[in-house]
Amino acid sequence: MTEREHPSGSSIDEPAKSETDSNALLEQLAQARAQAAEYLDNWRRAIADLSNARKRMQREIDDYRAAASAGLLEKLLPVVDDVDRAFTVVPAEQAETDWVNGFRMIQRKLHSLLEGEGVTTISAEGLLFDPAVHYAVTHEEADGFNDGQIIAELVSGYKLNDKVLRPAMVRVAKGN
Questions:
Q1: Which residues constitute the domain of residue 145?
Q2: What is the DSSP letter of 127?
């Protein structure tokens, strides 16, 4: 038996080798933990990105639906105007006929449909002109009105929630 051999057959330097192996294992463990933390962080970021993408996609879908709905409602407004205008010229002797009452039901349904979709009428007559919601057709002198005050509404304006679908067409007073 040599000086460096132990009766068990292992070398005397084995504790040093065991310590080196143990340091290497600890280093590998630290690297594995760092890698696991990196993977976990990347996974969390991917989940957050996916969640944000889903929310963004849902917002885009909602915006697309709202735009499509607004477009259809804008096309319906002239029909509503025509029906409303027709009732201003109904002769008094025909005002209560079944035929006219049937069209009044259609008129109410059209207005209910607009209301159900969130469409509201823009107020105009007697108010001050607001270019964000009113469209001035004429600017004329008028007794009893202040400068910039709306004299009359020619065509109703409508909003869908906070978005103007169509501004109210108005006549505006100008100062004397």
A1: 120-176
A2: S
